[in-house]
Each structure stands twice: as C-alpha cells, then as structure tokens.
Amino acid sequence: AVNSLGIITAGQVFARVAAKIGEEKVLRIGLLTAALGGVTLFFMISIDAGLYGILIPLFFVVSSVGIVGTSAPSLAMQHHGAHAGSAAALIGVAQMLLGACMTPLVGLAGSQTAFPMGLIIMLCDLGALCCYFFFVARAKKRPE
Prior knowledge:
Blueprint: H1 2-21, H2 23-46, H3 50-77, H4 84-106, H5 115-141
Helix pairs in contact: 1-2, 1-3, 2-3, 2-5
C-alpha cells in the first residue's frame, strides 16, 4: 500500500512540476531516482540489510514508476500525432514483452533470496538511464 501511494504521489507531484521545469527534465529525475534506488536496493540486499534496509530503496524504485511511467510514453509519442495509437500500442507491447522476459529471471535462484530481484531491478534501471543518455540526450546534441 505504501508503494502504491508512492507511485500516485510521485506521479501527481511531478505532473505539476513538469509544467514548470519541462517534461524531459522530469523524466531525467525519474530515471536517476530509479537508477539510484536500484543500485541502493541491490547493495542493501547484498549486505543483508534486513527488511527496512530493503523496503526504503524499494520504495524509491517503485515510486519512480509514477514519474517515468507517465513522462516517457508521453515524450515518446509527442512527434507521432497521426500515429499516436500505433505508437502507444508499440510502447505497451515493448513494456509487456520486457516484463515477461525479466520475470522468470527473478525466480532463477528460488524464492528464498531477493538477490535476483535486486540485480534485475538494478540492471533494468541502469539500462533505462543509459538508453536515455545514449539515444535521447545524444540525439538532441546532434545538429539537424
């Protein structure tokens, strides 16, 4: 319940903030929050920090979904007005496909350890951040 409140609160707060600082900056903040939370979560699991040591960074990882999950698709579809439905469908399929591929990996080590979960979360969050900087930020620096 606390994590779902984090998603809702982060989404609402950053929706208002996006009007002032821009949606792309909000996306960067969300991706950085997710990546830092993912690295911290993995570290806490690795040192066996206990329940609260895991729940706090997990809260930040999950809350960042409220930021990234709204701003990323919105920014991705901005330039596809005539094909917005197809773009939204492609984004949805990609999300579900990636989730379906990652889910079995989390269970590889069994249900007695959170290590694979922390590893997958960290790698996916860092991967998303790298994709942003490699594809989006880099493309904006190129002259048109």
